[in-house]
Amino acid sequence: MPSKAPAARTLPAKTRILRAAMLLFARTPFSETSLRDIAAEAQVDVAYVHRAFGSKAEIFRQALKAASPLDDLFAQPADPDTVLERLCERAFTRDPDCVEDVEMLHLAMQSCSCSEARSILEDLIRTEIARPLADVFGHKDTGRAMLATSFLNGVITMRLLFGSESMRNMPKDQMKALLVAALRGVMSG
Asked: Stretch 124-128: mean pLDDT, rounded?
């Protein structure tokens, strides 16, 4: 349901489009979200959406980046333990119905079965997470980093998507420590 809040209408149109895309892609698969849906949610003309972003794929790519800016993951200090701590902190996503809380994973989970979205996701994960993570650990290839990313994604999926009660009830600090140790084992082992 489009948010018709007057305050949202005061944002620049391109910002409203990106925010609308983030929310829609977090709730609806890429293949089921249209430029018309995004335009309606952003309260702009569909032609403007197309002019501003060029394609649904580009809006999706930009929404992924906006949902989870990754610059902070590899900011200094970028030693292995600090990077793993930052990466695992992202396992505790919040409410995908609130644009400020939408994470890349919300968008990925909705759209991973769509081949066009999947290629965008894979490229982003490889270039923005796996390659820098492999570099931090001194690995030439991204195999271990892709495995670590896959493991973390699986944990997040079980906890949030499937709602595993035992995982949701585990104290955050305890789960985070276990995640960091597991990822350290994958990256260093």
From this structure: 89
Across the chain, mean pLDDT equals 86
Q: What span, in angstroms and rounded, lies between the C-alpha atoms of 82 and 86?
A: 6
Q: Six-digit token pair at 118?
A: 């999947």
| Helices within 68-114 (DSSP H only) | 80-89, 104-111
C-beta of residue 91 within 8 angstroms of C-beta of residue 105 = no
- What is the length of the chain? 189
Separation of alpha carbons 8 and 80, rounded Å: 40
Question: In this structure, are residues 54 and 46 in contact, taking their beta carbons and an 8 Å threshold?
Answer: no
Q: Which two tokens stand for residue 13?
A: 């149109």
Nearby residues of 157 by Cβ (< 8 Å), 6 or more positions away: 109
User: Rounded to two decimals, what is the model's pTM?
Assistant: 0.75
Which among 180, 178, 164, 26 has a CA at the least distance from the CA of 99?
A: 26
Per-domain residue ranges of the chain = 6-64, 69-188
Angular region, 103: left φ>0, alpha ψ -120 to 50, beta rest: beta
Query: Which top CATH class is 6-64?
Result: mainly alpha
What is the rounded average pLDDT of the residues 71-88? 87
Q: Give residue for tokens 């290629």.
A: 119
179, 150 contact by CB (below 8 A): no
Please, which contacts does 11-16 make with residues 24 or more away whose CB atoms are closer than 8 Å?
A: 13/42, 13/44, 13/48, 13/52, 14/52, 16/42, 16/43, 16/44
